[in-house]
């Protein structure tokens, strides 16, 4: 279904529009974890998160006619910003449906990147109905933030770059939200790694992916009381089969473990990352024996933090 060549073509296609982000490491964090960690820092990506990759690839795969009419999505966070900036870079309109409850800082960022915002009540039903109305009015095509094949393949390019620099990684750990990043990463690890496994990290407070892997069906969350605000979404029918086939396991972490990992990254690496990103390091700290003396890649998914809401 997927091939190494297909992933290579995706990477080449988006290269003119993205940053090749740095891979950092910390001797002290290696010491604490008992393993060798390599952080792929997508917090330095354009618009501050890995989602720029998938948004760009998805737009570039549209026909010229489709591109002229623009793209639409509903998102309160990073994908709204990514799609807005990717569309602006390629020269097409982006219509963004945002819940009225979305932080002003995120609405401001979308506007800065040229996104045309329509606000709606903060329910999934309202978001979907508003997006449908805009599609009818404009002819714009809908792009899902995580359950779209071209988005998934684009997200996998972060892991491709990580493995180009460190081809001998034993494991790559990523946070799990809607499933696009982990699915793309797992494909990249399978095709570009040398027996490199992919592990997901997820809060106990939003552990739908963990339960989905156990049950074999896409599960949802009753509550999502987590500081990892990018991890509250559910898996989809495009990414779940990839996760089932290529992801080894998902490790769940407590809220205090996410905060501790976040603090260590800020203090020791001197980089700004969002709580969702710290979930991957929290998983390594929680299951030290599993990772001991391995070479481990960690995808730092983003750095879009509302500085008025710092946890420490």
Descriptive tags:
312 residues, Rossmann fold, 2 domains, 47% helix
Structural notes for this entry:
The chain has 15 helices and ten strands. It folds into two domains: 4-46 and 149-309, Rossmann fold (3-Layer(aba) Sandwich); 52-142, Rossmann fold (3-Layer(aba) Sandwich). With 312 residues, it is an alpha/beta fold. The chain has helices at residues 4-14, 27-33, 51-60, 64-69, 78-90, 104-112, 124-138, 149-155, 157-165, 180-192, 208-215, 240-246, 255-269, 275-286, 288-291, and strands at residues 23-24, 36-41, 71-74, 94-99, 116-120, 141-142, 171-175, 197-203, 247-253, 295-300. The model has no long low-confidence stretch (mean pLDDT 95). 47% of the residues lie in helices and 16% in strands.
Outline the secondary-structure elements.
Blueprint: H1 4-14, E1 23-24, H2 27-33, E2 36-41, H3 51-60, H4 64-69, E3 71-74, H5 78-90, E4 94-99, H6 104-112, E5 116-120, H7 124-138, E6 141-142, H8 149-155, H9 157-165, E7 171-175, H10 180-192, E8 197-203, H11 208-215, H12 240-246, E9 247-253, H13 255-269, H14 275-286, H15 288-291, E10 295-300
Parallel strand pairs: 2-10, 3-4, 3-6, 4-5, 7-8, 7-10, 8-9
Antiparallel strand pairs: 1-2
Short description:
This protein is an alpha/beta fold and 312 residues long.
Main sheet makeup: 6 strands, mixed
CATH class category of the largest domain? Alpha Beta
Total number of helices: 15
Number of discrete domains: 2
In what order do the strands lie side by side in the largest sheet?
A: 1-2-10-7-8-9
InterPro entries: TrpB-like_PALP, TrpB-like_PALP_sf
Domain Tryptophan synthase beta chain-like PALP: 15-302
Cofactor: pyridoxal 5'-phosphate
Keywords: Pyridoxal phosphate
